[in-house]
Amino acid sequence: MATSNGFPLVSYQPFRILFQLSYTATIILRLPYYSLIALIPSLRPHPKWTATQTFMTRLVYPLLDITSRIGITETLTLEPGKEGPRFQIVKPSPLDVYKGLLAKVTKPATIGGTWYPEVPSADITAKIVVLYFHGGAYIEGDGRDKICKPVADRLIAKSGVDAMFSVQYRLSGYKGQNPFPAALQDALSSYLYLLNDLRIPADRIIVAGDSAGGNLTMALLLYLRDFGAAISIPNPKCAALMSPWVAPFHYTMEGNPHRHTDFIPLSYPYWGANCYAGNWPNARTDPYITQLGNPFSTPVPIFVSTGTEEMFYPYHVEWADEMRGIEGNVVELYHEEGAVHDSFLSGPALGFEDSADDVAVQIGKFVSEH
User: Fold this and answer.
1) What's the CA angle centered on 151, arms 148 and 152, to 5 degrees?
2) Other C-beta atoms lying within 10 Å of the C-beta of residue 260
3) Rounded to an integer, what distance in angstroms lies between the CA atom of residue 314 and that of residue 299?
4) Whose CB among 48, 77, 289, 343 lies 3.0–4.6 Å from 352's, allowing a Cys bridge?
5) Per-residue pLDDT tens digits for 4-41
6) pTM of the predicted model, to two decimals?
7) Rounded-to-integer distance, Cα 355 and Cα 337, Å
8) Residue-by-residue DSSP string for 36-86
9) 112: which strand partners?
């Protein structure tokens, strides 16, 4: 139930604490059941899953549901924090590059991002750099060490890249907090930061993202397709999408064959999709928000990974087929057998590290070929 200003009623005290306590009590009561199905192989949701994978996917589901039902977006800061000098400020481009949809309503803003493994030196122009957009349904995440350091370490160690710049784009929230296209403006600003401020050649930049970050990556590629030539912005070397959120408003579970294996509750994509879209007209069909059903031509080779047990798996397969159906597009789809949504980001927490490592290796092969 939502109040008139858009926030769920349980986001307010004392309802919030009462809801948290009562929901937590139900989770505690379920722990013996989670343990039982984790310990007995025949009861696990997938025959190849370990006890850790089973237990953690069952546990994360209700924990994520609590956060989603309360619906309070994470607060970001531009202070360096423990990342120190690796956290860099990115200002909007002074050039006239925010065209079309990026020139409406929402204004470009100063953001930040974290460098891995270290602050770039003058030779960064000769290195392969990943411009990374984190997942989190556009309502969680900051691209910093707590979540993205393992991602950066994995890419640098196994994908053959030299550095990663993880963008802290603006997050959306109820009551009109940073709706679309704020994150896309930030994606463009960060790409231009690499191109114009650091002078990194476009053919040495890989644009990548997981889940919502994959959605944002595709939106950036579409913007470059639509406006890149007119504003003299070159395309990146290639793109890597891990479990991209290609259909944000497809969050119902009815008939979904992976409802009982994935760890994503309906409340999470519902929260993210509606806050991100805000009052944008026709958001459910706009190709900058919903990629499924809106294939487009792009000269940028695209690598896509998807878990065969994630609820978005059918959408990934369908979308990849749509994109490959356009002449000239290069789209490679890698199926992570037995993996849930976004193992690339959530692997360490859920026990899918091997799957995440395999994806990183495949990204390295794709980058070397393109």
Assistant:
1) 90
2) 13
3) 25
4) 343
5) 348 899 999 999 999 999 999 999 999 999 999 999 99
6) 0.96
7) 8
8) HHHHSGGGSSSTT--HHHHHHHHHHHHHHHHHHHHT-PPPP--S-GGGGGG
9) 89, 168
Using the CB atoms, write b or e for 60-77: b if 16+ within 10 Å.
bbbebbbbbbbbebeebe
- Radius of gyration (C-alpha) of the chain in whole angstroms: 20
Q: What's the token pair of residue 147?
A: 């979540």
Q: Are strands 163-168 and 302-307 parallel, antiparallel or unpaired?
A: unpaired
Which of 67-81, 170-184, 245-259, 308-322 has the lowest average pLDDT? 245-259
CA distances from 227 to 15, 64, 222, 232, 293 (A): 47, 38, 9, 8, 21
The pLDDT-based confidence of 361 (bands split at 50, 70, 90) is very high
Beta bridge partners of 205: 129
Token duo for residue 238: 């290639």
Q: What is the pLDDT of residues 318-349, one digit of tens each?
A: 999 999 999 999 999 999 999 999 999 998 89
Classified as helix, coil or strand, 229 is coil
